[in-house]
Predict the 3D structure of the following.
Amino acid sequence: MTADYSFVADAMTQAVPWVQTSRVEFFELTGDRVVAGLPDDPATHNHVAGPHAAMIFGLGETASGAVAMAAFAPHLGKATPLVARSEITYRKLARGALRAEAVLGRPADEVVAELDAGTRPEFPVAVTITNADGVTTAEMTVVWTLRPNRT
């Protein structure tokens, strides 16, 4: 039996106002992988008629955050996921609707074990952003941490 991660889309939309404002959609949600999309919108274009770099980055970061939420949902009472750092490489000019595939870079149980041992673990999420033709337009790594909640 597979777990149901559909709650992640609603939680992201409610917890992160930018997700609703930018109209990010969630197409696939698992405990270690998320596929999200950004519709084409001329209001968010840059000077070359494609999505502005900030929108592309935001899509990738949002997809990575959805992975963090899905992977660590049972532990969010004791820790808060936060971005520690990120890096993006723009490969091709992006045009039209975009998709971001985000994949957890470490086993969740390994990260939770570090948290339970009293450390503040970090974990990477690799993100590939593609256009409607499946061409990679950007690649990104977002490194997250689980900050223990104060009691």
